[in-house]
Structures are given as structure tokens and as C-alpha cells.
Amino acid sequence: MTDRTFRRVAAWLAIVAMPLAYANVGLALVAVGFDLGIFSDARAGLQLIARNPAGAVLTRWSMVADMLGFYLLLIPLALVLWDWLRDQSPAWVGLATLLGLGYLFCGAAGAAALAAVLPAQIAAYAQAPAALAPVHEALFLAFTRAVYDGVWGLLDPLLGGVWWLGIGLFLRRQRRALGWTAVVLGLFMLLRDVKIGPLELIGLGGYFVLAPLWAAWAGVDVLRRDIAKGER
Predict the structure, then answer these.
(1) Distance of CA 40 to CAs 16, 37, 51, 130, 206, Å?
(2) End-to-end CA distance of the chain, in Å?
(3) Which DSSP string do the residues of the chain spell out, in sequence order?
(4) Cβ atoms 217, 11 nearer than 8 A
(5) What DSSP state is assigned to residue 201?
(6) CB count, 10 Å around CB of 208?
(7) Phi, then psi, of 112 in degrees rounded to 5
(8) At what angle do helices 156-171 and 176-192 cross, to 10 degrees?
(9) What is the distance between the alpha carbons of residues 181 and 178, in angstroms, rounded to a whole number?
(10) What's the Cα-to-Cα distance from 220 to each of 7, 10, 60, 136, 225, rounded to whole Å?
(11) Of 26, 59, 120, 227, whose CB count within 10 A is highest?
(12) pLDDT tens column, 121-173
């Protein structure tokens, strides 16, 4: 197994991550009947998903797609970018990469926890008698708020924002468009931590649209870079 093999595997995983990331969003929308307003009200979201016969299954697979598409499959790419850029500034590139790995691992852990907990609570809530329904609702809301507001809403935007901003500033010296896109993506992530309604929504929307595209673009660029080296 050579470094070149690792780079190619990392590139293809980043490319495959894009449809999985968008599948996460699509499955979540199907689960709530494409009612976008539900995403700001977890309690109403639970009630709507519980009425969907496939709601629990869709939620589980949405979280699995999230875990893979937005997080785990990008870990090799983060290491490839570190190896590529570290000569410019070992300390700063290393710090940015460390924060990026923290973002990827923490985000994946949050998605895995929700994949394990939410479907069970949705199914139990849908079948529970009136006296027990509030218990399952409370568990659903507790896990949702811990991950959505804590891990994904507070910690990950900071870690991921600094990672993309940091590597983008170094990457733009060799891949101008790809580097500046990473900088913009980092700013979108940091906007999510501002917690001012419109700004947070802009940051979240930018992240959902741009992060998978950037990862796939970076994967294609790594493949092209390796092919060009091989031809020489």
C-alpha cells in the first residue's frame, strides 16, 4: 500500500461522500413530508415523523448518510491535504488539520448517536399510550438538542470553520479557486456559531450546499494531481 494508493482512495471517498451527504438531507425531508418549517421545532418534527409509517427508518438512514457523507469519508482527505500543505507551515497546517479531524470525529459521533436513539424513540412514541408518550418525547428532544444545538450547532461550526478557513488560506496558493472556496465555506461555518437567526441560517444553508461540493472537488483535484505526476 503506497502513499499514492492512499491519496486515490481518499479522493474517491471524498467524491462518494457528496451523494451521501445530499441523501442525508433528502431522506430527512421525505421523513417530514418536505415541511421545512419543522426543522426549527423538534417537538412538531417528532409528531410529524411519527405519523409517517417509514419515519423511523428514514431518520435512521438519514443519520447514517450524514455520518458518512459529511464526516467519516472525509477523514482520509483531511490527511492528504495536511501532507500536501504542511511544508508551507507545519505548525499552522497541523493545527488546522487537528481541528478538522475533531470536527469530523465529533460530527460523526453525533450522527451515530442519533442513528441509534432517534428511530427507537420515534417508533416508541408512535405506539405509546398517552401516558407514556411524553417520556419518549422528552428523550427524543434531549438527544436532539444535545447533538443539534451542542455538537453540530456549537462545537462543530467552530472546529470545522477554523479548519476550512486555515487550509483554504494555504491551499489558495496552489489551487486558487479551491482554496478560496474553502475559505468561504469556513466563514459559512463560523456564521453558524453567531446564533443570530438570519446569519445562522445563511451559514447553515451555505454549509449544506457547499461542503459536499467542495469535498468532491478536492477529491477530483487530488486525482488529477496524481495523474499529472504519473505522466511526468
Answers:
(1) 29, 6, 18, 24, 17
(2) 21
(3) --HHHHHHHHHHHHHHHHHHHHHHHHHHHHHTTT-GGGGG-HHHHHHHHHHSTTHHHHHHHHHHHHIIIIIGGGHHHHHHHHHHHTTT-HHHHHHHHHHHHHHHHHHHHHHHHHHHHHHHHHHHHHHS-TTTHHHHHHHHHHHHIIIIIIIIIIIHHHHHHHHHHHHHHHHTTTSHHHHHHHHHHHHHHHHHTT--HHHHHHHHHHHHHHHHHHHHHHHHHHHHHHHHHHH-
(4) no
(5) H
(6) 15
(7) -65, -40
(8) 160
(9) 5
(10) 11, 10, 30, 44, 9
(11) 59
(12) 898 888 888 888 888 889 888 999 999 899 999 999 999 999 999 999 999 98
At 175 the three-state DSSP class reads: coil
> What confidence tens digit (pLDDT) does each residue in 51-98 have?
888 889 999 999 999 999 999 999 999 999 999 999 999 999 999 999
CB 142, CB 44: distance < 8 Å: no
Q: Helix H segments across 128-196?
A: 133-144, 156-171, 176-192
Give the 3-state secondary structure of residue 13. helix
d(CA 219, CA 106): 22
Candidates 13, 2, 1; CA nearest to 222 is 13
Distance CA 161, CA 206 (A): 12
Q: Give which of 14, 117, 12, 105 is closest to 67, Cα–Cα.
A: 105
Q: Which residue type is seen at 206?
A: G
CA separation for the pair 82, 174 (Å, rounded): 14
How many residues would you count in the chain? 232
Cα Rg for the chain, rounded, in angstroms? 19
